[in-house]
Amino acid sequence: MTLFTRRRLLKTAAVAGVGGVGLAAMARLGGWAAAAPEQVLLKTAKVQATFMDVGPTRDVLTYGEAGMPPVLRMKKGEPFAARLVNAIDDPTTIHWHGIRVPNKMDGVPFLVQPYVYTGDHFDYAFTPPDAGTFWYHPHCNTLEQMGHGLTGVIVVENPSDPKFDAEAVVNLRDWRLGDDAQFIQQFRPRDAAKTGTYGTVRTANWVDQPQFDAPSGGLVRLRVAITDVTRIYAFRVEGAEAAVIALDGNPVPHRFSPDALLLGPGQRMDLAIRMPDEEGAIVGLGDIRGTKPKTLATLRATGASLKRDLRDLAPLEANPVQEVDLASARHIALSLSATAENVPSDSICGTLGYSFWAINKVPWPGDTPDPTAPLAELKLGKSYVIDMENLTPQSHPMHLHGMSFKVLSSSTRQVQPVISDTYLIQPNEKVQLGFVADNPGDWLLHCHIIEHQKTGMTSYVRVV
Ligand SMILES: [Cu+2]
To answer: Could you tell me the distance, in angstroms and rounded to a whole number, from the CA of residue 370 to the centre of ligand 1?
Structure first.
């Protein structure tokens, strides 16, 4: 049955492939690439990598020749271009998580672009309007492709950022491997219906506990991205003074110490860490969630102390996100719930064959050419508030594509008015997220626990 579906849909490959090239050509004619930035090549590959002592893991996916997908560096307000070349035996796309790109560049198959089939390519070109820490991943057969490695970090630099003495980028993710270091089934239905299926081997930058050197007494910018498909983290820094300076790419209004800060899949934090004065001192970034606390990465102080002070660090420049007008904002009710309804899905883009979750009681049927109607149709330039309610006993990192929202209020806690693209909603929480619908197109809104996304917790809004 699955095979039949796959083969039938693959017949459309030729047509869709031509569409992809056509779109790229149109992009060039349309002048998006007028400034002609050098195109970054992102070629998917199946490689081996070593995560366990017993030996290398086969069937690992990456962009490039080997190792972790590259950290992509872009500049705020400057054109970026990348060619995705698909060299794996599975259709794929790239989504630029958190970057406010034109809809055609958003990487969601069927909704905004055709699949990129084996041997085909797609040219992405956009100008990131915001500085900060972002990431990229496929939006097709997502659980399998992300689970096997296709998750990379993006740094959008801002020349006016305060000066740090060192910077490190940490890509946090797990791998679901058996005792022989080979991949085991990516999910279990009974877990997908709860918190999601956890990996068995935890890594940062594809290794266990990487260590970075940084000047003693210096200020370090630690950019951390959770690119895992399931795991929620509770962060703590040991051995140094640390402050969260940005969340999900945007500066926080008030800096705070990351004391058990909960962040979910898809989220990022930028930490400013003041290294200890003594050479050789170790600073640890840890996850204290659950029963087994884990040191994720460490920093080692080197050289004579620079004697810097965290309080001297200038604020990060705010990103140019439009201010929501609460007086005129229309409210959109959004409830997250479990469902027993089993919607048969016909999709090659990674349907898991189950429906466990729903948005406003509608389980998403999969990334099919005929998706359900948009959750809401929004008028370009108008303000909206999503009144989101979590009726489930699990937490959900809810991600909106294409636009950034401001966290306005929560029924269960004090919240800072942070600008973000992903909100980790807690059980029984109601939250208000305000935004200006300033980016035309169809924009997904989904849980970033990929099993939840793929078993119903997905919808989209249309901005016209
Ligand atoms: Cu979820």
So the answer is: 23
Which residues in 408-431 are b (16+ Cβ under 10 Å) and which e?
bebeeeeeeebbbbbbbbbeebeb
Whole-angstrom Cα distance, residue 327 to residue 309?
A: 41
Per the structure block, which two tokens stand in for 456? 């119903």
Query: How far apart are the CA of 73 and the centre of ligand 1, in A?
Result: 29
Q: How far is the CA of 283 from the centre of ligand 1 (A)?
A: 32
CA distance 276 to 305: 8
Buried b (16+ CB within 10 A) or exposed e, 341-371: eebebebbbbbbebbbbbbeebbbbbbbeeb
Distance CA 294, CA 61 (A): 25
Helix residue ranges, H only, 108-172: 142-147
Domains and CATH numbers, the chain: 40-157 (2.60.40.420), 166-312 (2.60.40.420), 330-463 (2.60.40.420)
Contacts of 135 (CB under 8 A, 6+ apart): 97, 98, 151, 152, 153, 154, 171, 225, 227, 266, 268
Q: What is the DSSP letter of 344?
A: -
Confidence of residue 453 (pLDDT cuts 50, 70, 90): confident
| pLDDT, tens digit, 9 for 90 and up, residues 187-245 | 888 888 888 899 999 999 999 999 999 999 999 999 999 999 999 999 999 999 999 99
Distance of CA 47 to the CA centre of its chain: 23
Q: Provide the token pair at 405.
A: 């929202």
Which residue is listed with tokens 């189950």? Answer: 354
SS3 category, 10:
helix
The DSSP symbol for 18 reads H
Angle in degrees, CA 4, 352, 10, rounded to 5: 35
Q: How far is the CA of 425 from the centre of ligand 1 (A)?
A: 9
383 C-beta neighbours (distance < 10 Å), count: 20
DSSP alpha helices (H): ranges in 127-266?
Answer: 142-147, 189-192
Report the alpha-carbon distance of residue 56 to residue 148 in Å, rounded. Answer: 13
Find the 359 Cα to ligand 1 centroid distance in Å. 11
Q: Where are the beta strands (DSSP E) in 227-351?
A: 233-238, 241-247, 250-256, 261-263, 268-274, 282-287, 294-302, 330-338
* pTM passes above 0.85: yes
**Ligand 1 centroid from CA 282, angstroms:** 35
Amino acid identity, residue 279? E
251 near 315, Cβ under 8 Å?
Answer: yes
